Amino acid sequence: MMPLWPKLSKGVGALESASAEWDNFCVVTTLSPWRLARSRMPDAQNVIFADSLQRDRLKGMVEQTDEFRLIVGLGSGLAMDTAKYLAKAKQSDLVQVLSLTLADLSGVGEGVLHTLPDIAGNFDAVAARP
Description:
Blueprint: H1 14-19, E1 25-29, H2 31-37, E2 46-49, H3 55-62, E3 70-75, H4 77-90, E4 93-98, E5 100-101, H5 103-106, E6 113-114, H6 116-120, H7 123-128
Helix pairs in contact: 3-4
């Protein structure tokens, strides 16, 4: 039997739309995606910046999620893996917001938040950068 996968949201406004009903949530992210996405979602009750996948560090983060029923992973590998660990450890719901932050594409060093569908249609811009 195939697992039931949640609906995938993508495209312009997807984060704003998907996050509109989130409450009592904690975001697990890294600095670049957080800077670019925080204004596109409701205020998180807590933000945890993922910095390591070492077991002792992850265990130390678990207590920071005690009061939240929803863990939101925002970013890519490190943030996603950390969010999955914390959600499983606390038996919380999990939402994953996959993004790529590509400072080289912006030309100003500030970065641009790209979701995978954005990148799929933007290979020329990626290839043109050093």
